[in-house]
Amino acid sequence: MKTPQTEAELAEAVAGADGPLRIIGGGTRPIGAPVAGTVLSTGGLSGITLYEPGALTLVAQAGTPVAEIEAALETEGQRLAFEPMDHRGLLGTDGVPTIGGVVAGNVSGPRRIAVGAARDFCLGVRFVDGAGRVLKNGGRVMKNVTGYDLVKLMAGSWGTLGVLSEVSLKVLPRPEAVACLTLAGLDEAAAVAAMSQALRSPFEVSGAAHAPQGPEGHPVTMLRVEGFAGSVRYRVAQLRDLLAYTGAEITVEDDPDRVAAAWGWVRDVAPMQGGGGDVWRFSVKPSDAPGLVAGLRAAHGDLKVLYDWGGGLVWVAGPAGADLRPEGLQGHATLIRADDATRQSIAPFQPEPPALATLSAGLRHTFDPRNILNPGLMG
Fold first, then answer.
1. What is the pLDDT of residue 185?
2. C-beta of residue 102 within 8 angstroms of C-beta of residue 260
3. Which of 259, 268, 84, 73 lies closest to 178 in space, CA to CA?
4. How confident is the model at residue 142 (pLDDT cuts 50, 70, 90)?
5. Rounded distance, CA 75 to CA 48, Å?
6. Which of 214, 275, 358, 378 has its CA 20 to 30 Å from the CA of residue 236?
7. What pLDDT, in 10s, does the model give residues 178-192?
8. 203: closest CA among 264, 114, 309?
9. Alpha helix positions (H), the chain
10. Could you give the domains of the chain?
11. pTM above threshold 0.90
């Protein structure tokens, strides 16, 4: 394994590579088709290089642990608003999640429905392309839109276009108060309808999830509200009135630690941790989600399911080795957890339409003409 300590060493390692490179950060997210090649880790490129709380801006090297960044932000009452998922429990991996891995995978949590994804907070990047050239794009403030598209392009490219060496991020203040409404006992269609109504309301819901089997084994629908204390109290009361028609028992939790733990359970897909079978991630129109799950159950038997993003994101744990993507799927499906043989035989990422696949291949050829950066990972 190669672990460069500087950007110059990273560029030298890529330029001097005589075969494929398997790019990793902390090694916590082995998602995509297996890559056979020399492991190149960005873990040696670590440290926050600039943090300006007043400007809501942070710059860090790609191998900086996410925990280190969150600790620095905590001291200033700020946070990564897109609350990146920690995949270790779901995938059974060790290592330390890094900010470069978060950006490379566009890893975003439940708050995405309210504030956007990781790529929406990425102000600038520095990276090494497949020819060993150091490239930079974007800036350190949101108004600087130089190279805007390239910054967004790197987020979610999974190391196939370049190896990130540094990222610039917009951060946001931590809210004064938070509360979570829980509706007990709704079926999946009713839960998605309730979440959609809450999200369409003016009451600024920052999380909407449903678990057919919650922590206590019963169906729970969760809605999160954040902001100034008075505003949170008002919006919680309004949401209770809005959703009274469901007939569900509605309870409210406003202890910050317990609310954080509940949403960490959703964010890290705790219901599917430590179990067997493969795990798929479906992105669909929320109103289509209950029908999708019903079809999957009819085809594959009993499944573990977790709805996030108001039903727009559906996590499904199913039988090992099966391709759960139904024919004519209106959305996207990604195989997140499976053994190497399955990830080799089933395309882990949603196959692209021919025109888009041609564009993607052209981009990869431009940035990685030797096809050495995580070749084949995305299909």
1. 96
2. no
3. 259
4. very low
5. 14
6. 214
7. 999 999 999 999 999
8. 114
9. 7-15, 66-75, 88-91, 99-104, 112-115, 148-154, 188-200, 229-242, 256-267, 289-300, 340-345, 354-367
10. 7-173 (3.30.465.10), 177-267 (3.30.70.260), 270-345 (3.30.70)
11. yes
User: What is the overall mean pLDDT for the chain?
Assistant: 95
**Tokens representing 7?**
């950007």
Nearest C-alpha neighbor of 274 from the set 43, 88, 27? 88
Strands (E), 243-339: 249-253, 278-284, 304-308, 313-318, 331-337
Distance CA 279, CA 317 (A): 4
Residue 354 DSSP label: H
Q: What is d(CA 325, CA 277) in angstroms, rounded to the nearest whole number?
A: 15
Q: pLDDT by residue (tens digit) across 47-94?
A: 999 999 999 999 999 999 999 999 999 999 999 999 999 999 999 999
Task: Return the half-sphere exposure (C-beta side, CA atoms, 13 A cut-off) of residue 214.
Answer: 18
Give the C-alpha separation, 113 to 82, whole Å: 9
User: Quick one: CA dihedral 96, 100, 104, 107, positive or negative?
Assistant: positive
- List pLDDT tens digits, range 238-297: 999 999 999 999 999 999 999 999 999 999 999 999 988 999 999 999 999 999 999 999
**How is 87-111 classified by DSSP, letter by letter?**
-HHHHT--S--BHHHHHHTT---TT
